[in-house]
């Protein structure tokens, strides 16, 4: 069991990651001595941490490790990392990020948001509702909540709101008061190997939650409800515990089927049906927390979105430039659907696949979800923690889509994408979208700076 010691320095290997940084910043705000390392120490996120007083090393070296350190590692850190090796030589404590997150969630009234899609947006919505209700929560987010300009908030109450990621089964260390399951789709098979293993992990997550809030319209999630202790479902289906209905004026309402309590005039700025589900999950959890409906209504209405989730980052020759973190076929389909609602011209998009294994596993899905884009640029795969897989590249997606080369263009680099978009005759009603979990947003920022 992990505990915190004011006499120790907490050293985060891979501190620049969105998940690692939020925890490091919370500990720093609580006056612990914090350090960390990252190969890319020039990102805005890392620079913010340095301004906050956190020591950040821009490489991985055994000299970064001290005898009084407690080491925190992300799942992406390899066994041959020199800092990890040095920590083992010194026989000092080594914990995973999941251990630290579970310390916060399990020793509080934890709200843990899981699901293949929508974790960041839903946890951001709940955070804003709780902030408006003056509940002073601690928030551990997978993106920047624009309202607070950060991916964390250090609160003084016992309420902790966090994402619960299934990627490496890290969410199985959590024992939340409310565990949310937005949806379940096959993903992360590089770790889970089979869909059934993935479903079993979600079942265990439900069994560890005191209360489970589950999307009753999602068949994969719904079939796991028998594993939950106190399940509450939300959805459009009439057998849901919290039934969603969309009104003629674009708002939606939720009815508690058991009590017949009615929560009306709910709305969100974010387009797409998937964001109605995210909002319904946030509202259901907030209702179970007994938060007044006025705060729920305000929180959803005022929620500005999370960074890299259908985020407008500027304009280029009069056209809006949008950035989105979508890296799964379903997320991309939802994104394009929302883009069509907003776009009066062409959708011009750059997609950067994330991981060789995901590109291989979802080749058909990527081709299907991307084919509705008017002009599509495919960037080289962002390999992150993986080694290349022979024969797997962004060219495979282009071949699978099978559209004319004038509509699907394979890039040599992100810089190549900037150049090619600059050669287009951009119209004001067009929409330029960068898509992917890597660094494809560099293109959007470069364009908007012109």
Overall description:
- With 450 residues, this protein is of the alpha/beta class.
- It folds into 3 domains: 9-95, NAD(P)-binding Rossmann-like Domain (Rossmann fold), CATH 3.40.50.720; 108-302, 3-Layer(aba) Sandwich (UDP-N-acetylmuramoyl-L-alanine:D-glutamate ligase); 311-449, Mur ligase, C-terminal domain (Protein-Tyrosine Phosphatase, Chain A, Alpha-Beta Complex).
- Helices cover 34% and strands 23% of the residues.
- The protein has 16 helices and 21 strands.
- The strands form 3 sheets. Strands 8-7-9-6-10-11-12-13-14-15 form a 10-stranded mixed beta sheet, with helices on both faces. Strands 16-17-21-18-19-20 form a 6-stranded mixed beta sheet, sandwiched between helices.
- Helix 5 (119-132) packs across helix 9, helix 9 (273-288) packs antiparallel against helix 10 (293-302) and helix 15 packs across helix 16 (441-449).
- The chain is globular, with a radius of gyration of 22 Å.
- The relative contact order is 0.09.
- The model has no long low-confidence stretch (mean pLDDT 92).
Provide key terms for this protein.
450 residues; alpha/beta; Rossmann fold; UDP-N-acetylmuramoyl-L-alanine:D-glutamate ligase; Protein-Tyrosine Phosphatase, Chain A; ten-stranded mixed β-sheet; six-stranded mixed β-sheet; 23% strand
